[in-house]
Amino acid sequence: MTQGPSSKALPAAQRFADKAFSAFEKFLHIEAISGVVLLLAAAAALIWANSSHASSYEHFWHLPLAFSLGDFSLSYSLHFWINDALMTVFFLVVGMEIRREIHEGALSNLKLAALPMVAALGGVMVPAMIYLAFNHADGVRQGWAVPTATDIAFAVGVLALLGRSVPGSVRIFLLALAIIDDIVAVLIIALFYSGGLDPTGFLIAAAGVLLVLGLQWLGIGAAYAYLLPGALLWFGLLKTGAHPTLAGVVLGLMTPVRPVKVIEAPLELAAQAINDFIAREQSTQGHGAELMAPVRQLRHAQRELLPPVMRVQMALHPWVAFLVMPLFALANAGVNLEGISLEGGSSLMVLTGVATALVLGKPIGAFGCSWLMVRLGWGSLPPGMNWAWMGLIGCLAGIGFTMSIFIANLAFADAELLAAAKLGVLLASVIAGCIGLAFGACLVRRSRANPDGDA
């Protein structure tokens, strides 16, 4: 008869398992790792779309996927379900990040938020103007918003690669800029890239919002309870003609920033559950089924310790970073280079306009507007930052992968122009990332050599 592990070996195994799991969790929350995964997914898409199996790339993402219930049916392509449904989870996290920053972060104080707000707006307006300088004709100028967005995952990931010598204020400023950038991008999508609005869809969307408010009023904190209201809101926005992923932003902004009010404090509830569990476990008449009640109570207490906006965001972060965004990159970054004609014409101008606007327009807009604001005495650089670090932030803001490609899909119906815009985003993001990494490495070396002086 095979014996189980000894009492001495078991704690050691448990300690090893705990350390391994803790290391894995830490791995999942490192921005640099999620950026690398996103980059690998984009590279895989490019290789696939330009291989001997290139035709299978387009065919696969346009396979139909249907959900039916009786006579009701939703049938769309895999590409739609990723871009319009799965990306709603990405926008939900974006909405919760905005909600948290407004409540207690870099956007909670107007004085603190003023400079990154101006930098972000400059990083939107200057790239848009540069793009329109190249593409002012009908059929191409609708892509003006493609180079206005910054990819948080890539930008923060590149910054993380530079190590701990980067001042904390630089990371906070970049995050604030990118979040404000996302707010602007969401508004752009809502105002400029939504079709003719069907009022009947607003009734369904309103029902979803009212259900969310009702569940919050009842004090229901379980995230699963909000799946149906969220689905109603998503479907309502789809029916209106607005982009359905905006449902994620709405839900994110509605997520409570304080723990749900309960009769007993979560810590007291947890203590009671632990004491009850110990008492039942030590009882000679105790059975496994009897232990489930205190376990459920302990889970409930654990859930209520953190505010929903933090708890849900932490739970969704690995899924968004390692599933949603890589799938989006795999489905959208596959540009067939043979299908793009760069011998003059609209495609070349779209590619040039997008790439130039991101690589040059972003740093010029972010840095220039910040410098002007400080020069006029309307703001000041955060402690630990100088203009060299601001220049690095401007370079990293030129990484516009996820949101830029998302907007490109909305802006261009023509396949060749869409491919040119995507290629421009990919080239610009690689160039901006390399420039930022090289420039940042120089600043880090200088700050290490002169820790008491400016970088």
Task: Describe this structure as you would to a colleague.
- By secondary structure, the chain is an all-alpha fold.
- The protein is 70% helix and 3% strand.
- It is built from 17 helices and two strands.
- It has a two-stranded antiparallel ribbon.
- It starts with 8 loop residues before the first helix and ends in a 6-residue tail after the last helix.
Keywords:
17 helices, mainly alpha, 2 strands, two-stranded antiparallel ribbon, 455 residues
Please give the share of residues in helix: 55-70%
Extended strand count: 2
What radius of gyration results from the CA coordinates?
25 Å
Helix-strand makeup class: mainly alpha
Regions with pLDDT < 50 over 5+ consecutive residues? 1-10
Helical stretch count?
17
Order of helices and strands: HHHEEHHHHHHHHHHHHHH
- Give a short account of the largest sheet: 2 strands, antiparallel
Shape: globular
Strand order of the largest sheet: 1-2
Distance between the termini: 68 Å
